[in-house]
TrEMBL record:
Residues 9-117 form the SHSP domain. This is SHSP domain-containing protein. The keyword Cytoplasm does not apply. Keywords: Membrane, Transmembrane, Transmembrane helix. The chain crosses the membrane at residues 157-182.
Length: 191
């Protein structure tokens, strides 16, 4: 009986798992279908920049493994990243992402509120697997809209920045005036 080679290379087969979003008022759920995976074969992490990193790897046979890697934006301005948690139940990884509660307005801020028209977000497309579990790659991708805009800066911060800019400009103008006066005074004494 021949012994298996220790140096046998593992071949990785990458795939895109079937994902489904459920959106609620206070939290969003991401459900990822992972047939034949075990909890120990999965990894869920969140970066300091609010990126959810989901990966997994499982053996198919002695020389072949199946793996996936997925990144999902979970911005700190929308989700409570410290409260995000995941459960693996019945071949499904369920990631719960609680939304941040809107902060109460500052009673000392007397500025006019800024209003803008609000456009309704497009409804996510429904993805239905075909018979036999074969799902086209175009239908498999998760439906998530991520906002890359900067968070709204409060009016207090904007006022402080404007005041600082005006103060810096005044200091530059004053320094130029002092320099001009010094040059004109020194120039008059040399004649």
């Amino acid at each position: 009986m021949a012994a298996k080679s220790v140096d046998q290379e593992i071949v990785y087969e990458e795939f895109e798992p079937f994902c489904k979003w459920q959106r609620k008022e206070d939290r969003d759920f991401l459900e990822i279908h992972l047939q034949d995976f075990k909890k120990e074969q999965l990894k869920v992490q969140i970066s300091n920049h609010g990126v959810l990193k989901i990966s997994g790897e499982r053996p198919i046979d002695a020389s072949k493994h199946m793996k996936f890697y997925k990144e999902v934006a979970a911005p700190n301005t929308k989700y409570d990243t410290h409260a995000i948690h995941a459960k693996f139940i019945n071949n499904n990884l369920l990631i719960t992402m609680p939304k941040l509660k809107p902060s109460s307005p500052d009673p000392t801020d007397v500025s006019e509120p800024v209003s803008a028209p609000v456009a309704a977000a497009p409804a996510p497309e429904k993805v239905t697997p075909r018979l036999g579990g074969n799902v086209p790659a175009a239908e498999v991708q998760c439906q998530m809209q991520s906002c890359r805009k900067r968070p709204f800066m409060g009016s207090k911060l904007a006022k402080m920045a404007a005041s600082l800019a005006v103060t810096a400009l005044a200091a530059v103008v004053l320094a130029a005036y002092v320099h001009f006066m010094y040059k004109s005074t020194v120039g008059d004494d040399s004649n």
